[in-house]
Amino acid sequence: MDLFERIRTTEEPTSKLARQLHGYFTYPKLEGPLGPRMKFRGREVLNWNISDHLGFANNSEIRSADEKYVQKWGLAYPVGNRMMSGQTSMHEKLESILAEFTGKEDAFVLNYGYQGFSSIVDALCGRNDIIVYDSQVHACLVDGIRLHLGKHIVFQHNDMDSLEKQLIKAVALLEETLGGILVITHGIFGTLGEHAKLDKIVKLKKKYPFRLLVDDADGFGIEGATGAGTGEFFGVNDDIDIYLGSFSKAFASLGGFAAGAEDIMTYLRYRTRTQIQSKALPIVYVAGMIKRLEYLHDHITLLSDLRKKTNYFRKQLKKYEFDTGISDACVVPIFLPCTTYEALNLVIDLRENYNIFCPILVYPFVLKGQLLLRFLPTVLHTKEDIDFTVQALLDVRKNLMESKYNTDRSDFFGEI
Prior knowledge:
This protein is α/β, with parallel strands linked by helices. It has helices at residues 3-10, 12-21, 60-73, 82-86, 89-102, 113-124, 139-147, 160-177, 198-203, 230-234, 262-271, 273-276, 283-298, 301-319, 340-353, 383-401, and strands at residues 30-31, 37-40, 43-47, 106-110, 130-134, 151-155, 181-186, 188-189, 194-195, 211-215, 242-246, 256-260, 332-335, 356-357, 360-361, 372-375.
């Protein structure tokens, strides 16, 4: 069969769904200045889906610095990958700052978090090594695990009994492979707003020989007393062997980094394929990240402000018995007991009648059978924003319970 014909035949249901959802549920266009209030389809909406926890995206001091860096260097500098021609003193400076900030010997700046994280897993593990990973790690880690030529074993999400069971299996397999074990988890699970049980995971290192890799994309910059991440939050930073952080969540920028032992970071600089064979992170983002770290250091109360608002939001939702799972981080999910079709209509109601923009997450972002709304609080959201949103959620939940969203397509879904 012709390749395109096979795609057209087997993927037609997806194509039909995309035509119905595109521009509204998928690939929506939020316009205007970045912040809690933006324009969606020409109307102002209260935006709960902005990766800018600390309010840096439109911060006047940071914006001014970013503009200065663009004027000085442009977007092209440096030209080439870092190994051949793209190394700069600014990259080295940022790596030194990140290493000190996260309490590690060294750090390695990555041009993109997703690509870099995937490639680091591939670089670390050979065919004789065994990867043991949480069932709900991010897709970038799953892609890295798929590149692995050796064995990989999954443990049930945040389940320490399951992890220990799989570690016992991995240790037994080591007798055949003569390799090592890498355990992979998150600091914060970004769809569910849950902390990984890092304090319990590191205790298992006393019983089993493994190294620990933590993807803390959603924790770096906001977790812990200084924002150094979820390891700092639990007081186990020294037991994290490979720490991965993103610049795109708390810091509203681009790129990421790995941090750990100096010799391992040197190894990764020469073995991480997506970094050695692609253009270096442009220096405007490097300088911008240095500025953001300095700003956070000088405005550390941003962290407590964010936590107070997130905790207030979650407390109000629990007061009215919304299901927020076991979330305890700066991501607030609401699990919906309904069909996908009802959930879509509920979201339309929120957007069209309350001007509230938040996404609905379905598989593969969450497990099959799960439906949830996800809210990303920022320091710029107000108590009034939270109270208004909770009241709107009470209204739409009432509509849901009265089966008002299980209706003819023309009433809700057809109007978009």
